[in-house]
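In response to the reviewer comment on reproducibility (Comment 2.3), we provide here a single inverse folding case reported in full, input and output, so that an independent group could reproduce the run without further information from us. The structure tokens appear first.
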């Protein structure tokens, strides 16, 4: 059995495929999947997802327009219990010094504090969450 890395409830994550670095992310063991905060989300006839990033902390990213191939339309139950159909993308992310291929759903998280949410499918068999810690990525 491989050793699991201990992480905190808030960490930094980078998505080089989207040219996004050091995004604040909430680690959510109650969420199944990952989500990225964006707006003006639509899928065109060629299955390209268009969206605008929303991140007030990183002014270079806030309002940045993106176009990425659609991976899938996913049914996701939001934090308020509502079932949503969200476009998702498959990208490389950098987390704790390693690169992982993962799927991220795109949604407007304006009522949430962090632009990125990391769910349990990404965490499974790789990480343990210490709820008394935050931003352990800054120590590596």
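Designed residues, in position order:
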């Amino acid at each position: 059995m491989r050793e699991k890395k201990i992480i905190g409830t808030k960490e930094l994550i980078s998505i080089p495929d989207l040219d996004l670095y050091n995004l604040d992310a909430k680690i959510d063991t109650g969420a199944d999947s990952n989500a990225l905060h964006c707006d003006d989300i639509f899928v065109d006839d060629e299955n390209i997802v268009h969206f605008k990033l929303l991140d007030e902390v990183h002014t270079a990213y806030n309002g940045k327009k993106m176009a990425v191939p659609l991976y899938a339309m996913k049914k996701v139950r939001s934090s308020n219990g509502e079932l949503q159909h969200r476009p998702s993308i498959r990208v490389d992310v950098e987390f704790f010094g390693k690169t992982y291929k993962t799927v991220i759903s795109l949604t407007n998280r304006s009522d949430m504090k962090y632009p990125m949410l990391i769910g349990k499918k990404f965490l499974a068999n790789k990480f343990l969450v210490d709820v008394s810690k935050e931003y352990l990525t800054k120590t590596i």
